[in-house]
Write a structure and sequence with these properties.
By secondary structure, the chain is α/β, with parallel strands linked by helices. It contains 6 helices and 7 strands; from the N terminus they run βαβαββαββαβαα. It has one domain: Maf protein (Alpha-Beta Complex), CATH 3.90.950. It is elongated. The two termini are 23 Å apart. Its cofactor is a divalent metal cation. InterPro entries: ITPase-like_fam (IPR029001), Maf-like (IPR003697).
């Protein structure tokens, strides 16, 4: 492995883009974990649980990372339930239909740790998202694009779906997948 300031335990191109935009040098080492949640887990607990699981997986698999700072994150969209990534067009339709004309929360859990050391920080950032009422034909057109299928809740606020967002309350980058301002504050405390 090459030297870099941070290890990003994620394959998300959106998280990589956000880290680069904030001037962070990092190496990507995607975590391979089972994302099954314990029963009755709410959004904030779910994302902190999964981000911790990812960070610990990378730390345990790569002992040569000792002393390096690992960053892991997980994002979910929550209505009355947790919406993950849609598996198919039917799930994408169901999710977008549920989100339209309504308010939902986006939670991103972030775990920061120094590999091989007891220093760890885990936090959750939440953003409230207000979606415009979208017509059935617009829903159908959107779910036939590739955009919904690798994103929590079936949408990307920074993508074509952004035109359907009325407004948000909170951190835009959190909705994209990594609340960098908060993360940088927590890294300074780590």
């Amino acid at each position: 492995m090459t030297a870099s300031e941070y290890i990003l335990a994620s394959a998300s191109p959106r998280r990589s883009e956000l880290m680069r935009a904030h001037g962070l040098r990092f190496l990507t080492v995607p975590a391979e974990v089972d994302e099954t949640l314990p029963p009755d887990t709410d959004g904030p607990d779910a994302v902190m649980y999964l981000s911790l699981k990812k960070a610990l997986w990378v730390e345990s698999r790569y002992p040569e990372l000792a002393g390096r700072r690992i960053i892991a994150a997980d994002t979910v969209v929550c209505t009355r339930r947790i919406l993950g990534k849609p598996a198919d067009i039917g799930e994408a339709r169901e999710m977008i239909t549920e989100l339209r004309g309504a308010v939902h929360h986006v939670y991103t859990g972030v775990t920061l740790l120094v590999a091989g050391e007891p220093r760890r920080r885990c936090f959750c950032e939440g953003t409230k998202v207000f979606v415009r009422n979208i017509s059935d034909p617009a829903v159908e057109a959107y779910i036939r694009t590739q955009e919904p299928y690798d994103k929590a809740g079936g949408y990307a606020i920074q993508g074509t779906f952004g035109k359907y967002i009325d407004h948000i309350e909170g951190d835009f980058e959190n909705v994209v997948g990594l609340p960098c301002r908060r993360m940088l504050q927590e890294l300074a405390r780590l």
